[in-house]
Each structure stands twice: as C-alpha cells, then as structure tokens.
Write a structure and sequence with these properties.
mainly beta
Length: 85
C-alpha cells in the first residue's frame, strides 16, 4: 500500500446492501473493515480489494469498529445495544 498523491479514486468496494457507516484499516495495513446499516462488517484484502469475510451477528445497524492495540481483536458496536468482539 503506497501513498496516494492523486485525487483519483483508487478502488470502489461494493458488497454492502445498505449505508456504510465507518471503515478502519488493520494496523498492518493488510485489511480494511467496513461497518454498515446492513447489520454486517466486511473485511477487505487491501492487495486484491476482495471481500475476504462478512461478519454477521448484530441485529441492527453496525455503527463503528476498532482494532485492539495489539491488532488481535476487532470490536464492533451496534444499534442493537451490543458490542461484539
């Protein structure tokens, strides 16, 4: 992953079926995780830009996610009043 000095779009990721609320890169830059109103998180490979995993379990909008400091866990929060690790 290099620095982008252009105003051009590098990649458009499609797969969510509703509004995307948030995204975050993993500490090593290998993955990008997106949170959506479709109640899922998607994990994207930043080399191929393919979705490598869809995380399900929330029963309402997923608003935010964050990696733990050591990168070993991903925590998501949702309008279903839960956090999932």
């Amino acid at each position: 992953m290099g620095a982008y000095n252009s105003s051009e779009c590098v990649q458009t990721l499609q797969g969510h079926t509703n509004l995307v609320n948030y995204c975050v890169y993993s500490q090593d830059g290998r993955h990008l995780v997106s949170c959506s109103h479709d109640n899922t998180l998607k994990v994207w490979d930043t080399q191929t830009w393919e979705c490598v995993n869809t995380l399900q379990g929330h029963t309402n909008y997923v608003n935010h996610c964050v990696y733990s400091q050591d990168g070993g866990h991903l925590v998501s929060c949702s309008n279903d009043n839960t956090l999932k690790v």
